[in-house]
Amino acid sequence: MKLNIVTDESDKLEMEVGGEGHTLLNLLQDSMHAHKDVTMAGYTKPHPLMDRSSLFIIVKKGKDPKKTLIESTEDAKAKIADFLKKFNDAVAKKRG
Fold first, then answer.
1. Of 42-46, 49-53, 60-64, where does mean pLDDT reach its minimum?
2. Which fold has domain 2-95?
3. What is the pLDDT of residues 39-50, one digit of tens each?
4. Per-domain residue ranges of the chain
5. Mutual orientation of helices 22-34 and 65-95 as an angle, nearest 10°?
């Protein structure tokens, strides 16, 4: 994964993300939308043949977009860990 910060302002962060598709970016977008300090968040993939996307976040005045992105990423990580635990429990239960 390649990351390049395009815009780093007091309330806005935009990054180019290389080597990742909709799966990761959509997960991050959903987690950012759920964060209380986020005003707007999303990503764009300019063309299916291009190996880069743009991820952006705008936060409420006085909040740090980098910190908010990190918190959103940790929330996504926790959701994945919870899913994995429940999945493994279900598989173990099925196998008896």
1. 49-53
2. Gyrase A; domain 2 (3.30.1360)
3. 999 999 988 888
4. 2-95
5. 110
